[in-house]
Structure formats: C-alpha cells, structure tokens
Amino acid sequence: xxxxxxxxxxxxxxxxxxxxxxxxxxxxxxxxxxxxxxxxxxxxxxxxxxxxxxxxxxxxxxxxxxxxxxxxxxxxxxxxxxxxxxxxxxxxxxxxxxxxxxxxxxxxxxxxxxxxxxxxxxxxxxxxxxxxxxxxxxxxxxxxxxxxxxxxxxxxxxxxxxxxxxxxxxxxxxxxxxxxxxxxxxxxxxxxxxxxxxxxxxxxxxxxxxxxxxxxxxxxxxxxxxxxxxxxxxxxxxxxxxxxxxxxxxxxxxxxxxxxxxxxxxxxxxxxxxxxxxxxxxxxxxxxxxxxxxxxxxxxxxxxxxxxxxxxxxxxxxxxxxxxxxxxxxxxxxxxxxxxxxxxxxxxxxxxxxxxxxxxxxxxx
Length: 365
What we know:
365 residues, mainly beta, four-stranded mixed beta sheet, four-stranded antiparallel beta sheet
C-alpha cells in the first residue's frame, strides 16, 4: 500500500484502508473505505481545481468535475454509453411523407400529408421544434408529399415531391428560419428521394420520377441556387432515404425493380460505392447523422427497429417505443436524433446515442 504519514496513522481501519471522514490531503481512492464517501454533507476540497457550487454548471466541458452543495453530490461531465429513446412533445397533428431537417433541438418539418388514413390531406404547413415545443413556421409555396430536405433551421432547402394533381415537381425552395423562397430547379423532378447536406452544398439521389420505369439512379448536387449532375447510383431506387454531406453521404434501402432492398450506398462527392447492408430490406424508414455516425429507424407499420452506422456496418441499438413508417427525422449525428410522427402518428421521440455529453454523479457503485 505504500508508506503512511504519521498524521494519517489514527485513520487506518482494520482492513488496511483509510477512514476518509476527517482527512485533509489527497488519498488514493482505492485506499479509502467505500462506505465513508456516501451521503457527503460537508465538502472542503477533493483536490486542487474541484469547485463547490450551489447548482450544476449550465454548459460544462467534457471532463469537468464539481461538488453540488445543494444535492451534496460529487459530479462530472462524461458521455452516454447506453443509447436510449425518450418521449418528446407530440407533433400537433398526424403527420407523414414530410420533409424534415435540422438538429434535435432545432428542427424543421414541412409539407407532407396531415391527418390519418383516407382523411390525410396535403399541407403547406411548416413546424419548428426547439427541443421542447412545436411552433408554426413559414408556409411552403406548394403542398407536396415525399419531398427531400437538408440543412439547418435557419438555412435549409426542400426539393422535389408530388402535388395532389398528381404532378412530380423539380422545384426547390430555400428556408431562412422564417419564410420559403423559390430557388433553382432540379434536372429530374422526383419524389420519394434521398436528400442531405446543407443549403449551399446539398445532395439528392434516386426517387420516383413519375414516369416509366418509375425509378431513377440520378444524383444532383445543390449550391444554394442551382443543381448540377453528380455520380450515378449503382441501382435505380425509389422510396429510399439517406443523410450526410454532399461529399460524404449514404442512402438507405428503398424499392428496386423488383422488390425491396437492404443495400446502402456511400457517396464521396464524385461516385457511389457499396456500404454495409441494413439488417433487413426496408422502405419508408428514415435516418439522420453523418456517414461515420448515423442512425436509421423504423420502416414499417410494426417496425420499431433502430440501427447505428459507423461508416462500415450497421448494428442494432435501443428500439423506439413507436413503430414508424413514412416519418420524419432530424439530427446531427447518431448521438442526438429525433423521430417525427409518421403514418397514423403524432408521437415524437428523442434518441440519445453513445457519446452524447451527460452530467453524471460519482458514486461508490
């Protein structure tokens, strides 16, 4: 155990550990009797640089340690290790086939079909989420179902979709956090497409072009005002989803001729190549994040399955409480995402994945 200083001699217990209830100085925690650090009520110092505060810091930095004198708890800022889902504020109405983008605490959900079953109707509504509540945003120029979208709340875009006539559009509109403005048109109009990126570096791929054969493998890249042709998908596919950046994107599943696929494709800004396969063929799912830290969720009226992507392969993680299909999703990475409504649903759930900053209490356990 090492040498014992004289002023510590009377604090050595029979098992060779220290009784820390009345010690000053720095004692290795392995030499302190575990029972003696439960229910701390008086805190002098736990070593240089550890402050005593009445409430937890509002924005602690990873690795910070402090003593909360109100709750009498020694705390630190770590990260989550066990992914989990939590209920969030419900969407105001049943919602499906919408465009969603942004982060978990700053989300845009626009257009799509509001209502359930045969009463579902095309809408021009936009709703914004701040992490707590949904509020009205600017109306989109044209009511559409299954458009794509990308960007953040104050600088996003929505592209393509199908109007009730029915007409497949190649229209693009930009969002500034308040209102939508018409921007450049895609070369190929489509709905049920993959989309991602930012307002000034967006990407779309695949989708339903509205005419035979009913599938496309075309990719287009957006600079905020106009679209240019990108690399061709390995397979023409519709009802797919995806996420990521213009130079690092991924597609998820979808319908091919014939059937449904579990394939994913990765984009490097120039060309597409095969990625890791999803656990099962899927259509109507959604996902968010980055190419190396992504999350895919749902994909059917009874599917609560959630998978994480590390840039190579998919692995199962904590399931959602609600089965979802044709829903919305937002989020910056697999550590922080949002699942929004879906066919027949108003429920919204927040995903807190591995690596998310989290305040933790130091205990003897």
